[in-house]
Amino acid sequence: MHRKTGSGLAAGAAAIAALCAAGAASAKDVLGVACKSPPPAHCSGEACVPLLGDPGNAVDPKTGRKFWLDYPCDLKPGDKVIFILNIHGAGSIGQWQRHYFPAMDYKDKYKLVVATPTAATERPMPGGGAGVRMWAADADDAHLQNIATAVIDAVGRQNIKSFWLAGHSQGGATSHRIVCSDFFKDKVDGLLSLSGGRIGRAEINPRFGPPKADGSPPDPRPMPAAMTAPPLPACEFSHIFETGEHEIVSLPATSPMAEKFGCAARVEEKDVADDQPGYVWDYARQGYPVWGTKARPGKAHVWVYPKCKGGRVVADVERLDKGHTEGLEPHVTEAIVKMMVAAPGGKLANGAKS
Q1: Which residue range(s) make up the domain with 233?
Q2: 315, pLDDT greater than 70
């Protein structure tokens, strides 16, 4: 049994029950969101720009803040789902993140429930500069917890096979900050770090950052340790790291997470090749490869550390000839989703309480 936390969540729980009973043909809504396949507000390329200001189709019942919710339309009683909290980077917004890491495209195939929120306020970047929208503990942690609670209560903790945090850039740093917090440590089974946040330093390109006003690369500068070398976490979870080739100096051949779980030496899998581009990029500052150019097809190297304790997944994905802001291509997105689905879970289903 999941605890009731208000009329909005009770309505969500009733809706998911109706969905399971009636089937996809007459599906009711979940947390006020009607199920659609393909997902709503789906866009590609420059056509996304007019939609980027849309904060979402679902509402945090405790604060009234909107977020995006995508879920499978064909749930059956007892179906197990993968819950992904998909967190954007500094200067971004939830709608952009939905298309940067478009797990929503695979919600029906892999039974994914994907919640994609937007940070509340603009804050100065570390080191100075103009304010940008970014995650802050005082403004956003309760909102992220509210979303997690709403989804868990609506779907039913016993039906959540695993719960993943996925974060791009500062969203990845936020995921690292909260994953072992009191609220999330007994719920989260996996962490996907997109463009930064590898546990076991992947040295960042010293020219990392947005281009200058004239489009030229930024001056070289050392990266703060917090951006390059997150400490070994105090709780346990699977970890997938994804980066663009131009963002880093090199990718290490070892991993502290692999050592923690007693994994074997890394194995390079078959490259993932895409003949279609991702959906989005930094429309205002494209052109400098380290920051990112217009989204385009590509290839990615995938390394996995096999035979990890408890079946944990530890993996690295390097997208070739890509920078920080090109949205993930469809095949590499699916390859990452498949690793997430294959990873062990069960923290929620085995009795952790929100």
Answers
A1: 7-342
A2: yes
Q: Give the alpha-carbon dihedral of 307, 263, 174, 103, to 10 degrees.
A: -30
Q: The whole model's pTM is what? A: 0.89
Sign of CA dihedral 247, 249, 251, 256: negative
pLDDT of 62 higher than 90: yes
Mean pLDDT, the chain, whole residue set: 89
Within-domain flag for 66: yes
Strands (E), the chain: 58-59, 66-70, 81-87, 112-116, 121-124, 131-134, 160-168, 190-194, 238-244, 267-268, 272-274, 298-304, 314-319
* Pairwise CA distance, residues 249 & 252, whole Å: 10
Question: Structural domain tally of the chain?
Answer: 1
Evaluate whether 139 touches 119 at the Cβ level (below 8 Å). yes
Determine, yes or no, domain membership for 159: yes
CA distance 85 to 69: 10
In a domain, 53, yes or no: yes
Helices (H), the chain: 7-22, 94-100, 107-110, 137-155, 170-178, 225-228, 256-260, 330-342
Render pLDDT for 156-213 as a digit per residue (tens, 0 to 9): 999 999 999 999 999 999 999 999 999 999 999 999 999 988 999 899 999 999 998 8
- Whether residue 147 lies inside any domain: the answer is yes
